[in-house]
Amino acid sequence: MDDFDKRKFNEVEAALNTLGEKAFRAVFLNLLRFDQTVIYANVQPDEREVINRFLTIEELCKIFDALEVEEMETIRFLKEMTPRLASAILSDMYMDNLADLLGRMSRSDLATYLNLLPKEQIQEVRELLNYHERTAGAIMTTEYISVNQNETVASVMEIVRKRASQAEIIYYVYVEDETEVLVGVVTLRELIMNDDSLTAKQFMKTNVFKVLVEDDQEIVAQRVKEYNFLAVPVVNTTDHLLGIITVDDIIDVMDEESTEDYSGLAGVKVDGDEQSPWISALHRMPWLLTLLLLGMSTASLINHFDSLVSQASILAVFISLITGTAGNAGTQSLAIAVRKISVQNYHKIWKIIRNEVITGIIIGVFAAISITIIVELWKHSLALGMVVGISMAAAITVANLAGSLIPILMDKIGVDPAVASGPFISTLSDLTSVLIYFSVAQIFINSIM
Questions:
Q1: Residue pLDDT, tens place only, 310-320
Q2: Structural contact between residues 59 and 88, judged by C-beta atoms closer than 8 angstroms
């Protein structure tokens, strides 16, 4: 926590331990929801037990709905409570948050907490848990407001007032026909501005943006970002409304996907709880061993050109310079390609590849000229400078091509492009750079010597 957070934390902790319930509630409930969740998650278990006594069920439920911690932490908080209190909180949570939390539990914990829920909620939760992970169905909530198309503005407003406390968002009211098919949407603004006698059918928007329950969550998040919606309806193949996805869930998805992409680029998992060095090593070892085997191919290639190095040992000096520069260029190109793929710019795939190759050529030419001049001034050998310069230009161009092409090919065959991580591209660039360098050196070997 930063200094400002620590000051608020200390103030709340002092009120909790010395000033009593009334003073604590005055201080704690005056905080923003995010600050409340941070404090709740960071106090000691015995202090959290006191907070559970001082707050109402409704207040605790709002904290649990907004907790920004790993699900295992939230489960631990539940286990600190009595079953009766845990049951009350769970039954009052938003359905999507509840399903997400229960979905992370072990079988025994899931059975325990499901049995604590009211019977009418159990079936609804089970249905949400049955949707495939990372799909629209898995992140949607069933707490929305829908009305029949023949309802008047007056009756719709009355429905909104009655259901507002249970709905996760009230700005959009979804309109269905007699067969419960989604046919339109009206906003709260439109309801306020229109005459009470009009029916929803008369002024609703019929061009409703909706997603299928099996759509990938990343695609859904991108569409919401493009259209600036606060929520989107989720339907089945017959356009029956099943739920909605709100913008707060979209933000969570985007954060999750960004973290996953960064993990792929780094070749290591960067999210989750802090792990012991042994666990971290076990998780990273398979990937590093794979890269080690790929690196051995580079070592074998250098060994293949051992006779060339024996003739001109100065060539060995520039191996790491060329491979490192090409590897960095390839990683930059990879980052651009993964980003473009993540926002679904499929119609620009060949433009991405073309731009990265041209970019590689431009960078390569400038790098080649620079290193040729440097080597000439340093080693007084124009031929050596040209070998290093030409090799670097070609290696950077090939690395840019690989960095943009490999993730696109992986995406085409259904593999997450983030798997084409930075370390993988760097290792591949090492191999191609060494091959290019020594191939060029063979042409100029007589001039170098």
A1: 888 899 999 99
A2: no
Chain segment 231-247, per-residue pLDDT in tens? 999 998 888 998 899 98
- Closest to 54 (Cα-Cα) out of 72, 34, 36, 38: 36
Mean pLDDT computed over 23-43: 87
- Residue spans of the domains in the chain: they are 3-133, 146-255, 277-448
Q: Whole-prediction pTM value?
A: 0.58
CA pair distance 392, 324, nearest whole angstrom: 10
Percent of the chain with pLDDT over 70: 89
- Does the pLDDT at position 4 exceed 70? no
**CATH of range 3-133; options 3.50.30.30, 1.10.8.60, 1.10.630.10, 1.25.60.10:** 1.25.60.10
Contacts of 449 (CB under 8 A, 6+ apart): 311, 312
- CATH topology agreement for domains 146-255 and 277-448: no
Rounded Cα distance, 331 and 339, in Å: 12
Superfamily of domain 146-255: CBS-domain (3.10.580.10)
The pLDDT assigned to 82 comes to 86
Q: Are 243 and 169 in contact (CB under 8 A)?
A: no
* CATH class label, 277-448: mainly alpha
Mean pLDDT (the chain, rounded): 84
Secondary structure of the chain in the HEC alphabet?
Answer: CCHHHHHHHHHHHHHHHHHCHHHHHHHHCCCCHHHHHHHHHHCCHHHHHHHHHHCCHHHHHHHHHHCCCCHHHHHHHHHCCCHHHHHHHHHHCCHHHHHHHHHCCCHHHHHHHHHHCCHHHHHHHHHHHCCCCCEHHHHCECCCCEEECCCEHHHHHHHHHHHCCCCCCCCEEEEECCCCEEEEEEEHHHHHHCCCCCEHHHHCECCCCCEECCCEHHHHHHHHHHHCCCEEEEECCCCEEEEEEEHHHHHHHHHHHHHHHHHHHHCCCCCCCCCCHHHHHHHHHHHHHHHHHHHHHHHHHHHHCHHHHHHCHHHHHHHHHHHHHHHHHHHHHHHHHHHHHHCCCHHHHHHHHHHHHHHHHHHHHHHHHHHHHHHHHHHCCHHHHHHHHHHHHHHHHHHHHHHHHHHHHHHHCCCCHHHCCHHHHHHHHHHHHHHHHHHHHHHHHHHHC
Predicted pLDDT at 39:
87
Which of the two residues, 418 and 374, has the higher pLDDT score? 374
